[in-house]
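Protocol step 4 of 5: obtain the predicted structure for the target chain.
Materials: sequence only (see below). No template structures provided, no constraints applied. The aim of this step is simply to have a reference model before the mutagenesis design in step 5. Sequence pasted as it appears in the construct record:
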Amino acid sequence: MGHAIAHSLTTFVIARSALGFGEAGVFPASIKSVAEWFPKKERALATGVFNAGTNIGAIITPLIVPWIAVHLGWQWAFLLTGALGFAWLILWLVFYRKPENHHCCTNGEREYIQSDPAAPSGKIKWGILLRYKQTWAFAAGKFMTDPIWWFYLFWIPDYLQREHGLHLTQIGPPILAIYVISDIGSIGGGWISSNMIRRGFSVNAARKWAMLFCALGVLPIATVYRISGLWSATLLIGLAAAGHQGFSANLFTLTSDLFPSRAVASVVGIGGMLGAIGGMLIAEIVGHVLQWTGSYMIPFFIAASAYLIALLLIHALSPRLEPAQID
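Step 4 output (C-alpha cells):
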C-alpha cells in the first residue's frame, strides 16, 4: 500500500514537473512574438489581449473537463486537454513567421511594425543579461506580483468556502465573474499605456502611470476580509484580479521596451523563474498564516500592497526605462 502511494506520488510529481517545464516556454515565446510583430506603442495592448486568453481558458476548462470526465472517463480529460498543446504547436509551426518572412504582411505593415530603431541580431547569454539592472527590474516585478496571482488561483476557492459558506459546486459563478473582470483589466491595462504613447507620452511615463493605476485598483482588496456580502467581496476580488492582469500586461511589455527582441524570451524566462519562487513562498506563507490566525486579513493586505512595492522597485532599478546597452 505504502509503495503504491509513494509510486503514485512520484509519478504525479514527475508529470506535474514536466507540465511546468513545458508551460514555461509559452510566455517567453509570446512576449518575443509581440516584440517582433508590434512597435512599442502597440505592445502593451497586444500583450494584454493574449494575456487575457489565459483567463478565457480558465473559464472554459471547468465547463468542458467535467463533461469529458463523466462521458469519456477521467483519462480522456487529461489526454484531450494535453493534446490541445500539441495542436497549438502544430498551428504555430505552420503559420508563424516573422514579419519580414510572412507572405501576408504588406510592405506598409512591415514598415509600421519595424518603425522602432533596428536592434542587432545574435544570441545573448543569461550570464550577460544578469549584469543589467533592467533584467532585475523585470524580475523584481515578477517576484512581487506573480505570487499574488497564485494566491488568487489557489486560495480564493478556499476563502469563498471558509468565509461565505459556499460548497465546491457553488463557487463557479463567483470564480467566473472574477476571471471575466480580470480579462477586462488585462486588455484595459494594456490599452492605457498604448493609448498614452500614441498621445505623445514617453514609454517610461506611459508604462509606469498605467502600472500605478492598476496598483491603486488592487488596494481595496485589503478590506475584503471584513465584507460579509458574497458578491461585494467577489467584485472587489475581481477588481484586484483586473489590476493584476493590467499590471502584468505592462510588466511583460517592459522586456521589449528594455531589451532587443533577441533577448526578450530569456529575460521573461528569468523573471518567470523568480515569479515561480515567489509563488512557492506565498503558498507556505498563506498556509501558515491561516493556521495561526484563521483569518485572511494578512494575505489580503500582502496582495493589496505588493503592486505598489513592485512599482517602486522597478522605478528604483530603472528610473527612466532606458534600454539596456548590450554590445
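Step 4 remarks: The mean pLDDT is 85. The two ends are 59 Å apart (CA to CA).
Proceed to step 5.
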